[in-house]
From TrEMBL:
Alphabetical keyword list: Signal
The keyword Signal appears for this protein: yes
Protein name: Penicillin-binding protein activator LpoB
Organism: Photobacterium proteolyticum
Signal peptide span: 1-21
Top-rank taxon, per record: Bacteria
Amino acid sequence: MMKNKLLLATTLALSACTSYQVPESPTFAAGSRWAVMPMLNNSNTPLAAEKAEQILNAQLYAKGINAVMYPTSETSDLASILDNSARRKNAQAWLASQNVDYVITGSIEEWHYKSGLDGEPAVGITLEVQSAKSKNTYWRATGTRGGWGRESVSGTGHIVIETLLDGLNIEQK
């Protein structure tokens, strides 16, 4: 009886650190063309979206999707780094000249270390797949995870993005 209570308490404590809403997606053709577009950075961490986009692109590649990334613009001032609108506008203009079927984008809600003795990482991400032409949304998933004391924010971000992408159904060649 005591063992069961301990197991239940441990399970509840660990599950409180993560939350995922990952529906199954429609099946996407293996040969479809994808583009990674700018993510919104709703976190307090500058450049969090850019970091997540790079992880997303690598994770897509691991799943067999060779997505193209929007071209980054060189910014040297803090105002440009913090302002998403110019980056998104430039990426939309670039997308109009691309021959892609699907766009994957999203937002970063959290990307930081919690304050305190251990400073655990906390990551919250939403991903969305849209038609590049009609802008219809085909799939949306969200997840949050608090890592352990010695884990990095990027490592936690990898886990969240990988878990979210597990909901994508990609037709095998």
